[in-house]
What does this fold into?
Amino acid sequence: AECVRLSEHAGGKITADDMVETVVTISSKVDPRTYCAWLETSIFPEINLNRRVLDCLIDWCCQIADDFDCKGGHGIEASIRLLETFERSMAKNAQESHSSFAFFSPFVTSNPRDGNVPIIIDTNDSNSSSKEGRPGTTAKNDDNSDPQRKLHIKLMHSRIIQSARELGLSRKVINLQNFQKDGGAEVIARELVQLYFSQSKADSTHLSERTEDIQAFCQLSNVSLDHAVAQYADELCSRNEVDDRILTMAEDLVQLCTDPGVKCEITLKFLQAALLSPSKPDCLKKLAKEAVL
It folds into this structure.
């Protein structure tokens, strides 16, 4: 498309629709490193980002980002690269649009400014919602009604997945396309807590470091670590057989939490589970006393 745009063909320029159609034909098999710079420097500066164009481009971008992660392609890093290119380019486009507004204002008056003359707002906009008989976009609309917010959320989900996988989360647990459907960041946090305890059995030398990592993840994804720990404790105590190995995990689980109420809740779950166990680890007696105090 860039070659055609710069050529003498068709007067040396193609329409914005032609450029958009060229972009959306790019498949997920193509490495985004080969075209992200082109999008940012040659496509976005040349097109008018009206709502129709935005919807088309962002739908394509989000679908390709999903495919990168879900179809064994270029991976979540490629998804983030493409999404960041779009977000950065649109922010720059919006900034330039606001800057150009200083040279043209829809606020006009029939005479030089006079305190007795009301300001008239020029609403002769072909994109006006009232003109087309459609309700205007409001804050009450869902996230999908705002293409830029949809893009931002997709990028946020990508970063959460990348962070979780760096901590050892399996690709099988969740992918970008099914992020919300499969439970989102809360499910990931619970899986990381489970992974945390499975790793701590094998190697306790980096336990505090892993604790900091999972705390940082929960802060990044805006989820409660206490809630994730409580979910994992509930899963452990709901098993048909709760042995000593599981019961002795109670103390470590409680130590991961900061909310006293959650600490007591987890302690109670393990005490109830211990009623069906032939042995009672000493740590449970200690936790019970602390909960009472």
